[in-house]
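If you are new to this repository, start here. Below is one unmodified record pulled from the training split, so you can see the exact layout before writing a loader.
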Amino acid sequence: MLYATRYAILKLHRFLLPSSNLLAFMPYAYRTRLCLLHSQPLPSRDAYKFDNVEDAVALFNCKVDMHPQPSIVELTKILGTIVKMKYYATAIHLYTHMESKGILPFSVTLNIMINCYGHAGQMGFALSVMSKFVKWGFKPSAVTFTTLMKGLCLNGKILDALYIYGKIVAKGFWFDEVMYGTLINGLCKSGETRVALQRLWKMEGQFVKPNLVMYNIVVDGLCKDGLLNDALDLYFNMLGRGISPDIVTYTSLIYGFCHAGQWKEAGLLLNEIFVKDISLDVYTFNIIIDALCKEEMLLQAHDLCDVMILRGQQPNIITYTILMNGYCLNNKVDEARNLFDMVIERGVVPDVWSYNILIKGYCKINRVDEARNLMKDMFRKNIVPNIVTYNTLVDGLCKAGRISSAREIVNEMHYCGQPFPNVTTYNIILDFVCKNQHLDEAIRLFKSLIFERRFVPNVWSYNILISGYCKNKRLDGAMNLLQDMFKNLDPNIETYNILLHALCDRQQLGKAVILLYQIIDDDICPNLYTYKILVHGL
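And here is the target side for that same chain:
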């Protein structure tokens, strides 16, 4: 696929050369048809509305099989509707079927296909679609290049996107705001925030000037990457150019400073919002409240919640859930429960995440009966527990030594199927059984889960059992399990650390060194704990 992509990029040069009059070499009837296609207006946006993709596909197939053949504009409109429903593979299949019937695309159709291939992760095919612009005598538009750049960025092909960008600019094609915004957004989402910043600076001397949206994209990327000084410089650059920051700008900056623990700077920015009378939304308040809670500044978080109400913004269930989580993180579960009850009294309906946080809080302090009562309350209120709810409760029951109750819940999940137990559920049970010196029972459970419940173990599953073998001084069993693991999974550094620790404990330093070389050969990077084990074993 990599070579196909590079080959297609080379073919793209053809679009960037002065276009030859390909129409002159086509039959008269074919030239006429192409000209008619260019002159045909698209139907109105509301021409087609479907309740489901099956209806859209049925209509498309019906039209394709019509005689005489339908307008490509009509078919393109249906394809566009299917793409808006995010059925990209379906649209690709229908387009291929249409071509096999001899129905020729036009530029909008090809743009849609580039978009589909981009979302499907098939950029080689997206680039090959560009050759059809030359083949049929169409000229790529700003939409064409924007769609192509978006697809490349979406698939992490940043160097390819920058290469094409350079070629397009070199041929005198002017990028518009949407094209620049697409490139900058793609760079930021791919972690290339500094490159995006450089592109933003380069725009200053060009026809298109950076707008608020572009600044916000880069400011947000810089803040998420922890490059707060660069973000502030860009913020002051905005002010110097007469671009007024909006709530999106301030939210990104406040988020960055809060998560860096720079409360003074975050407070100054918040005060600036108040002074400028910029309308603060609940999302911004929630970000700051969440950061305060994670820093154990619960009093300040509550004060900000009061400020929020005074400014006419009502806290939503997310706000209250954040506060509840803050209490639970500090083992203040009763305060979290009081807040939970107050929320219900105020008519705010708690969601599954609110319950999950409180259930986790109760389990953390070994009050599992209250956690179980909360789950029962969820059923009474028609709030369906999710896999996190069940796994949290199973984990809490295991840690409380109530393995039979935990297994009852797992069996209930298995037979009800909503939600079905996942690998984490079974790993919790395996971990408890191993840690309670019931290794043989854990091994039997592991095997029965694989054969009877189609359990697919992950690295954590194997690490639990390998650790169990080692703690029971059954090193041969641990090594055999490691070999079994190699059939489907790659061990991680934790796997090897468990084995190294066991070998060093038994003074088998030669085998430990051999295993260390194996770790290095497997391109697994030893961590600090690895070296501590080896030093301790000497």
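Two things worth knowing about this chain: The domain at 1-156 is CATH 1.25.40 (Serine Threonine Protein Phosphatase 5, Tetratricopeptide repeat). Residues 123-136 form the longest helix (14 residues).
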